[in-house]
Here is the input.
Amino acid sequence: MSGGRFVTLEGIEGAGKSTIAKFALAWLTRRGIPGRLTREPGGTPLAERVRQIVLERGAETLSPVAETLLMFAARELHLKNVIRPALERGEWVICDRFTDATRAYQGSGRGVDAQLIETLAAAVHPDLAPDCTLLLDLPVPLGLGRARAREAGAADRFEAETVAFFERVRAGYLELARRDPQRFQVLDAAAPLAAVEERVERALEALA
Here is the structure.
């Protein structure tokens, strides 16, 4: 292995990203490769505070554009304080969501102008893209069923969205993968966990 690697996990709610992130870190640990798990929005104390604003269901309306700007504000903090330093140290960064999530959720899901999203991405990380993106894909009803079954409290702003919203998000993700097949690997998240982990392992081995 030469240097760090930036691996992102994407997918709708209930796709199993957290489970796969832990599997990926364990895989790295077994091989003596330094790795770090992180997530978006969030990943730093201040970015986690932005996450709370984005996810909470309050009385004040949060417009799609405001939501997008908050996502990139949190991302800038995350990149500067966690992701870039880790990569510079030669660590592998396993990140639960990154800019593809903004393209899918705010772009395809909310209808935010794609050019605005790409302008913000170019401003925040013009020189950085994931080395590999694992898209955990599954039918929307299955994903939402999983997500809502595990929730102990009230759903956040995204979990409370409609099936139609998540269908747009899923379609957006699949279109991103179609346009960038070298970076994306689409995994069947409805398959048995062992089968998904095998695909993840193959993808990581290709990067090592």
Summary: The longest strand covers residues 132-137. The CA atoms of residues 79 and 125 lie 8 Å apart. The radius of gyration is 16 Å. Residues 6-207 form a domain with the Rossmann fold fold (CATH 3.40.50.300).
